Amino acid sequence: MGQLCLVLDGEAFEWGDMFYRPTDKLMMDGCDFLVDGKKVAGESLVMRGEQVAIGEQIFKIEEISSLSGKATEVVRPREAMGGGDPPLLAMIGAFLGWPAVIFTLFGSSLYALLGALLLRVGLGKPLPFGPFLALAGVTWAFGGWKIWEWYLGLMTVGG
Questions:
Q1: CA 12 to chain centre
Q2: Helix 98-119 crosses helix 130-139 at what angle (to 10 degrees)?
Q3: 73 confidence band (pLDDT: 50, 70, 90)
Q4: What is the pLDDT of residues 123-144, one digit of tens each?
């Protein structure tokens, strides 16, 4: 038996990739929810790693054979940073100064976007942000502040 998957609009997402943190959840608004072929009353569904709640009813994942329905809206709330990212940013700020923190946030976002595109990281796949923060911090230390000054110079009016 393979990995449990969630299929949305024909695209399969592995369960472990969708719900790898205890706070991960998926919220859906919709209708015609069926659990093991039986209609369940409710217009909203909240899915977590080990349970599914439809309206007021809660079902354990391991007890469900099938789940289907029509979703009108799907929302996956996520934290943007993990637990180690803020201390890493604080360290960068302590050693390189507060302007380095602003540059690091901006630069690491660009590095992460480029990395996700090159590695073809799909929706719902975890991508550690810490290495990109570190790379942007190193970029600042070895001349990134010159890039930052150039960028800020472009934004001055009547310069």
A1: 17
A2: 120
A3: confident
A4: 556 778 899 999 999 999 999 8
Instruction: Determine which helix (DSSP H) or strand (DSSP E) holds 114, and give its type and residue range.
Output: helix 98-119
Q: Within 10 Å of residue 86's Cβ, how many Cβ atoms?
A: 11
Inter-residue contact 96 to 141 (CB < 8 Å): yes
| Backbone dihedral region for residue 107 (phi beyond 0: left; psi -120 to 50: alpha; all else: beta) | alpha
C-alpha to C-alpha distance for 62 and 140, rounded to whole angstroms:
49
The two structure tokens encoding residue 115: 């990395």
What is the amino acid identity at position 4? L
Using an 8 Å Cβ cutoff, are 144 and 152 in contact? no
In the DSSP assignment, the letter for residue 153 is: H
Q: Which residue is listed with tokens 């201390």?
A: 87
pTM exceeds 0.70: no
Contact 139, 107 (CB under 8 A): yes
Amino acid, single-letter form, for residue 51: Q
